[in-house]
Amino acid sequence: MSEFSNVRVKKAANIYYDGKVTSRVITFADGTTKTLGIMMPGDYEFGTEKKELMEILSGEVSVLLPGSEEWQVIEPGSSFEVPADSKFGIKIGTVTDYCCSYLD
Length: 104
Description:
guanosine phosphorylase activity, transferase, 7-stranded antiparallel β-sheet, 104 residues, Jelly Rolls, EC 2.4.2.1, mainly beta, 0% helix
């Protein structure tokens, strides 16, 4: 899906790592949420509350998922899942556009 219809968008951005990672929350009519964001090159670690599906729209990304010792390359147009209540590492090689879905 390349665009979303009939959503609410939070005006205030989520800003992490001194502005190197930003996102905006969109909420659908059924109450589900996603964030749309940009990550600048760097190495980051994030924690999850809910299970997440991260779609990489563009950029160079490697991810270290919970329980893994090996970094995985994630190609643009691909996605990865992160379990709830966990942490994951992510390395960004070039400016990266992403969409994160929060799953129950």
